[in-house]
Specification:
- By secondary structure, the protein is α+β, with helices and mostly antiparallel strands.
- The protein folds into two domains: about 30 residues, no CATH class; about 130 residues, Lipocalin, CATH 2.40.128.20.
- Helices cover about 15% and strands about 50% of the residues.
- The chain has a ten-stranded antiparallel β-barrel with strand order 1-2-3-4-5-6-7-8-9-10.
Length: about 160
């Protein structure tokens, strides 16, 4: 009887292990992606050069195939702005919709807590964004350098808190 119970437990463990191995590597990677989630801007801790600062911003990052979809819903000094892009790390340039400062985006992932997004306009690099998630996973800092659609130099540091 004891042997049958032991065998039953081992069978259940074997089935669970097989199920875990059957999960696509992509699903496991996305489940542990430190960037996935909804992030709110803390305007008081953010800096904008040349400014003015956004009044609010919500950044939602979700898994999309082998990559990610970033959706940004902001209230800027000139009014509301919603924009997005879907990109695969180390993939080709992907279209950006709704942002006059960028036409395409490409993403690289130097580490699990770091992403670099290069935004282009007219085929040329316009802005580079380096996003770093803190070790506790609760804060993301995005440093942006480049030029906006008006040709002004941009040096922003955005402080986001995970919701």
């Amino acid at each position: 009887m004891r042997a049958a119970i032991q065998t039953g437990r081992l069978s259940i463990l074997a089935v669970l292990a097989a199920c875990a191995l059957a999960l696509p590597a992509q699903a496991v990677a996305q489940a542990s992606d430190n960037f996935i989630g909804t992030w709110k801007l803390d305007p008081a801790k953010s800096t904008y050069k040349p400014g003015p600062a956004s009044k609010s911003s919500t950044l939602t990052i979700e898994a999309a195939g082998k990559g990610m979809k970033a959706s940004i819903d902001s209230v800027t000094a000139t009014g509301p702005m919603k924009w997005s892009y879907t990109a695969t790390p180390d993939g080709p340039d992907s279209p950006v919709t709704g942002n006059p400062n960028a036409e395409t985006a490409s993403v690289t992932m130097p580490s699990a807590n770091e992403r670099i997004v290069v935004f282009k306009r007219g085929g040329k690099v316009a802005l580079t964004s380096k996003a770093v998630v803190a070790k506790d996973g609760k804060v993301m800092t995005i440093t942006q350098d480049g030029t906006d659609a008006k040709g002004q130099a941009v040096q922003n540091v955005l402080y986001y808190v995970k919701q």
